[in-house]
Amino acid sequence: MEYQHITHQDFGPFIQKDSQILILGSLPSIGSRKAKFYYAYKTNRFFKVLAILFNEEEPISVDDRKDFLKRHQIALFDVIQECDIKGSSDSSIRNVIVNDIPSLIKGTNIKQVFTTGKTGTDLYHQYIGKDNIYLPSPSAANASMSLDDLVREYRIILRFNSHNNK
Questions:
Q1: Does residue 48 surpass a pLDDT of 90?
Q2: CA distance readout (Å), 95 to 46, 84, 89
Q3: What number of other Cβ atoms are within 10 A of residue 124's Cβ?
Q4: Exposed e or buried b for every residue in 20-30, given b needs 16+ CB within 10 A?
Q5: Is-above-0.70 flag for pTM?
Q6: How many other CB atoms are found less than 10 A from the CB of residue 41?
Q7: CA-based nearest residue to 155, from 121, 114, 118
Q8: Mean pLDDT computed over 79-88
Q9: Could you state, in order of their start, the residue ranges of all structural domains in the chain?
């Protein structure tokens, strides 16, 4: 597979003025880029995990996912603005330019930044800061983490979500 230069421009950050949590991945997968929304690949467990945490049905359509995120004051974006990558393989990423996350959240209600997966976390630490909380990748490629393991790790999100604490 050849390297492809990807620019994160087909869809930008999903953030509302009342968002309290920002979850950053590394870069959208091929499936997510095609759907023009985050964690869209059919085997990705991100929305399944969140649905379990918030005791709701898993949102399937992009519109349902956006509604879910709005209700729970969760913003999504990625660390990488552009890079060269082979397919969806984070391990192949090179020539990285990162998004300006500090400017994105300046003046918002974001209380905590989370990063999913090793690549997104490493790049966040290298270029942005260390004020994040690491979450394991919800990708099916992260087969070492069961759904129960992911739910256990992601439970920390609930501490920063006042909507959940009402």
A1: yes
A2: 27, 6, 14
A3: 23
A4: bbbbbbbbbbe
A5: yes
A6: 19
A7: 114
A8: 92
A9: 4-160
